[in-house]
Amino acid sequence: MLREAVQSINSKVLELPFIFPLASGAGGDCVVRLVADECCVLTSREKAPYLLLMEVVGSPCAELGKRLVVEASPAEPDKAASLPPSSRVQVSLAVEAGAVRVSLCVVPEGTPAGRRHRRGTSTVFGGSWAETELRVRASSPFSTHPAWRLVPVIVKSGDDCRQELMAVQIVSAFHSIWTEAGLPIWVRPFEVLVTSSHSAFIEVITDAPSIHAIKAHLAPGKSLADHFRATHGDGTPAHRNAQRNFVESMAGYSIISYLFQLKDRHNGNLLLDSEGHVIHIDFSFMLANSPGGLNFESAPFKLTKELLEVMESDADGLPSDAFNYFKVLCIQGFLEVRKQAERILSLVDMMQGPNIPCFRGGARVVQQLRKRFHLGATEEQCVELVLSLVGDSLDAWCMRSYDQYQRVANGIL
Predict the structure, then answer these.
(1) Fewer Cβ neighbours under 10 Å: the N or C end of the chain?
(2) Is the whole-model pTM more than 0.90?
(3) What domains are defined for the chain?
(4) Residues 98-118: pLDDT tens digits?
């Protein structure tokens, strides 16, 4: 049904200025086609979020605000409407007299430019993003346009994503604070565009499968640490660099998880990019709300044994310098955001509203958040606090049990 709907939209795309909705689209890229074969519905227990891949060709629509004019060859005006199955249309775009003029010509399927590559939608996540772009461009009628790009977006419906928007703005604020301070702590801001109280566009983070997806492809008995060694080499400079990236991102998201009480941190909501960074997604549960209202994930943040193993130096499970580095970064990162607590609290205060689930505890929610910054404590006391948070999170029973529940109930590894 999704692909049929996309095909219907494609028949109208060139008639209207259709703008890529997210800011990362470089200020209004013109969408010329949705790739129906690559669109898919994503795994979800209750709702049906879906992935769209859009072909964009720069920003003539935003600049001109004019309709697209489709022009077939004068000699054969009906050629575009009567293409044989073994042919496709090659499209060229040009700005003429204040409009974007689209010229069509037929390319036989047997030529290199017209050869199709049909593969499943899983390749969007299973292969690299560069491979996906090459495959789609090989079959695209817009492939010759110099500003051609492929951009993915997730569409969510049935959820109020204003909380998600607030969360990614908070992540972006933390990213700015640590960058301005020159700390090597890493988090990945991404775009969320709320389109109504029950729908939104969300930027796709490419080349970053979930830890669940990675574990699903591991051989029996293999761990996430084994995946790191197999992917980056065991003890190589590449492995050490990936391990460092892992630690620097774990530190950032651990601090945010503690302060904002992030919940539902199962392995389907933790991504791992090709450089080793962990990336948290889906912020439906934070501050005052939690899955089932149980507040089961009571540890300050997720630091299970499998995550700790990635920081360990060898098969004996001895803590390496990477784990000590993690603790140092957590201390430095917490002390830095504590200096700018009012900046964070002001952002949260602006977003308060009775219809946002994480604020259902009223003014008490922000008061408890302020308390977690420990603004009246000395730096020495804050160091002890952070070390205690690490200790309380280390292979915490509640986090292990929540992962076990997700494994049994939802098949999330």
Answers:
(1) N
(2) no
(3) 2-156 (no CATH), 161-190+206-410 (1.10.1070.11)
(4) 444 444 444 444 433 333 222
